[in-house]
Amino acid sequence: MPSTTLGITYHMSECIKHWQDRHLHYWDEALKAKYTAQGKPYQVKEFNKIFKGYNAVSDIPSILFVDDLLAAYPKAKVILTNRNVDRWLKSMDSIFYAVMRWRTMGLVAYLDPVNLWHITSLDRVKLIRRQALLGPYWSLLHIVMGIWTGGNWKDQQALRQGFLDHYKHVRAAVPENRILEFRSEDGWEPICSFLQKPVPKDVPYPHVNEGVGVVQLHAFLYWIRLAKALRRMTTVGAPILVAIAAIWWYPG
Hints:
Layout: E1 9-10, H1 12-17, H2 23-36, H3 44-51, E2 56-57, H4 66-72, E3 78-81, H5 85-100, H6 105-111, H7 122-131, H8 134-149, H9 156-173, E4 179-182, H10 188-195, H11 211-231, H12 237-247
Parallel strand pairs: 1-2, 3-4
Helix pairs in contact: 2-8, 5-11, 6-8, 6-11, 8-9, 11-12
């Protein structure tokens, strides 16, 4: 759903936007509690820490918590945006799979924060971990893709089935009077009617392909976090790692 015309939507980029407010940590905690029974499952109190200031959610990782969010917000309405599964898979391959195939992304994630073997102060460890961005995000992305594919994020056939299973689950979980089956070509009218909002005037319904922008964002984060990690390392090792990153940037 458009994120500013009808409301303020929490989507995946918000995790990165609020990384210093520990949003990546919260999602890591929530995913592990739900899918590996590590820790307490998130309820409304915990979700409110993440969604404060927002009135809608979309995208991963939120959509992996359908039942939890329905329980936490029992009056919420659900807009199920229908997409062709083959076009969705193609989009995923050109965005997230493309990024996850970058040869040195795992190395940069490992260095963000820089490996902590030489740090003895617990407070210093906590501080550096809180300053980390790409490392926690990379972990989150792998957890999400692993959930969707049954454990093997490289298996795109499993991802296809995960897509279909997700839609089936949403349709079964949400009461009929609280769900709207929507296609982007339908425009504003069905959404506004469902949400009891006026149709925006002189605002065309957005049909934006954000794929290139998402990849560019990952590339920007890659180089920024690599530079930040290298500033913590020795001046001898830094130029070598920069050269390696440049040579192995693309999977080839």
